[in-house]
Amino acid sequence: MTSPQSVRSKAQHVKATWGSRCNMLLFMSSEADRRLPIISLNVSEGYKNLWGKTQAAFSYIHRYHRDDAEWFLKVDDDTYVIMENLRLLLRQHQPHEPIYFGRRFRPYVRQGYMSGGAGYVLSREALDRFVTLAMRNPRQCRRDVVGTEDVEMGRCLASVDVAAGDSRDEHGRERFHPFEPSLHLIRSVIPRDNWFWQYNYYPAREGPECCSDSSISFHYIRPDQMYTFEYFVYHLRPFGTISVSNSSAVGDERLPASQLTMKVATAAGNAAVTNASYVKAAS
């Protein structure tokens, strides 16, 4: 997801960095711009209208790109995503499963719901159920534009039996992160009375154990930090190191690209993206 005010300050930097690893990248906003490209939705901007904008974005994706991808990722235009690690998570699942993944929060929805800032990814079946079932039943799914986007999405998906998946790695470490790395990695930075500690579905950790070696997303990332991520994730390598991770597919002992390809659609902030071998992202 993006907005007219954020195209130059945020969205274009998504396209120049992690968005380039998507098969298709679509930005969702209230004004069109063919250069990114940005899809114009008939919505008003502003946080209070984000739920309406999210509904419109997924409706557009379902109508025009439903068969172009198997998974559909929604993220903000200040979220950085490591697409290879997203594919690693999703290769264990099938697009016909009614399931979605993200940073699982606890309040308001019995099975939990996924943080909007950290991003969440829907299977094709989950997308189908959201658009063709949940959105057509106002008693189960809120249809006005106001409301907290991630909570309302969680309620709608739960009402049509879409499962909230566990995206943690084999060590119980989180892969989707609602803040920038330093807030998770440095102990005691997030005050104990902050909402973060009460919202996590699974007990939150801090320090090095906060984050999986195969982490997928970080939120509240400035444009300059996106380029820093690019360097550290894709270019810097310690000399003589074969693998610096105990995860199943990181470092030089990576899985062949052919084993990590799948159709995925991502919505970034105010965008929509399709990843390489088939990921669509919406920013």
SSE arrangement:
Blueprint: H1 7-16, E1 24-29, E2 38-40, H2 50-65, E3 71-74, E4 80-81, H3 83-90, E5 99-102, E6 104-105, E7 113-114, E8 120-123, H4 124-132, H5 149-159, E9 163-164, E10 176-177, H6 181-185, H7 195-199, E11 217-218, H8 223-234, E12 264-268, E13 271-274, E14 279-282
Parallel strand pairs: 1-2, 1-14, 3-12, 3-14, 5-9, 10-11
Antiparallel strand pairs: 1-13, 3-8, 4-11, 5-8, 6-7, 12-13, 13-14
Helix pairs in contact: 2-5
Kindly describe this structure.
With 283 residues, the protein is of the alpha/beta class. It has a single domain, classed as Spore Coat Polysaccharide Biosynthesis Protein SpsA, Chain A. It has eight helices and 14 strands. The strands form three sheets. Strands 1, 2, 3, 5, 8, 9, 12, 13 and 14 form a nine-stranded mixed sheet that branches. A hairpin with a 2-residue loop joins β12 and β13. The longest helix has 16 residues. The radius of gyration is 18 Å and the shape is globular. The chain starts with 6 loop residues before the first helix and ends with a strand. About 10% of the residues have low confidence.
Question: What features would you highlight for this structure?
Answer:
single chain, 283 residues, alpha/beta, Spore Coat Polysaccharide Biosynthesis Protein SpsA, Chain A, nine-stranded mixed β-sheet, three-stranded mixed β-sheet
Rounded to an integer in angstroms, the radius of gyration calculated over CA atoms is: 18 Å
- Poorly predicted spans: 244-261, 270-280
Summarize the biggest pleated sheet: 9 strands, mixed
Distance between the termini: 4 Å
Give the H and E element order.
HEEHEEHEEEEHHEEHHEHEEE
CATH class: Alpha Beta
How many strand elements?
Answer: 14
Architecture per CATH nomenclature, i.e. the level-2 architecture = Alpha-Beta Complex
> Which descriptor suits the 3D outline?
globular
- Overall mean pLDDT score? 87
**DSSP strand content:** 15-25%
